[in-house]
Amino acid sequence: MNKIKTIFMASTLEILVALCVGSANLLLKPIYYFWFYNVLYGILCSFLIPIFLLRKEEHVFDFLGIKRLGKKQVLILAVFIAFSVGGQIIPIMAKGGLIPWNLLPMGIVPLIMTTFFEEFLFRGFFQNIFEKEFGTITAILISGLMFSFYHVGYPKFRTFEDILLLSAVGIGFATAYKLSGNNLIVAYFVNLPNAFVTYMLKFEQFPKMTMHSTIASIVTLCIIVIVFIVLVRAHR
Question: CB–CB of 74/183 below 8 Å?
Fold first, then answer.
């Protein structure tokens, strides 16, 4: 029965996340985008709901993988970043292509925020609850697939090729998370440089990054920090 509940809960949350992202990309006015993307998709579905569902866990931060980095974690982090980032940049530079670095500054804060939501939800929450019920390999595969399917909310990521590629990328992030000893910091910093490079190389597929999105992301991250502080104090 726990397995059925887990599947139903995860499926429902995945659909909600995709709907919120899709609504945000349909209603592109800054205020609508903020409510559907930053608040509903991010703060509510990807952060507060998982924490609420894990409220009975005795060591919720350990369960989510919020741990310090050790030598093993740093090594895994370096290897995965080298492959994910180098695999995209090196072939382009070898052919004499240009990397549009000028696009990056406006995307830094929004991508820092989005990467947090992705890793907190898909690795810290989904991967752990599925591993608890179905085992490691199944959890890695499901986490990767769910990571790719939520991108259907982004209109320009809906091709079969993109979904297939994102599944492979998501499985890579999930593998890094598991190899590191379920360390969410490793998963986050594997994903983040990859997000920066993907944005620069495929910026036309992303929502337009503006000063509005940067300010909204700063506000959102401040809310997340405040919630974390409250939770840590309550946990102690």
Answer: no
Cβ pair 20, 37 in contact under 8 A: yes
* CB hemisphere CA count around 187 (13 angstroms): 34
Is 84's pLDDT higher than 60? Answer: yes
Closest to 232 (Cα-Cα) out of 48, 52, 60, 69: 60
CA angle (29 as vertex; 23, 31 as ends), nearest 5:
90
3-state secondary structure of 153: helix
pLDDT computed for residue 236 by the predictor:
67
Q: What's the pLDDT at 98?
A: 84
Residue with tokens 């909600």: 16
Instruction: Quote the distance between the C-alpha of residue 124 and its chain's center.
Output: 10
pLDDT of residue 16: 96
Residue 37: how many CA atoms within 13 Å on its side-chain side?
29
> C-alpha angle with apex 49: 45 to 54, nearest 5 degrees?
145
